Amino acid sequence: MNVDGAEVVGAAVAGGIAGLTLGAGTAALAYFCGTAATTSLMAVPVAAVAGGFGNAVGGQAGALAEAGTRQIGGSEFDTNQFYSDAFSAGFLDTDTVMWDFGSGAILGAAGQTFSNLSTPSIGAKYRYYSQTSDIEGNVIRNPLYMPASLPGEPRNPVISGSFAGFMNETADWTQEIVSQGADRYRQK
Question: Which pTM was predicted?
Answer without folding.
Answer: 0.60
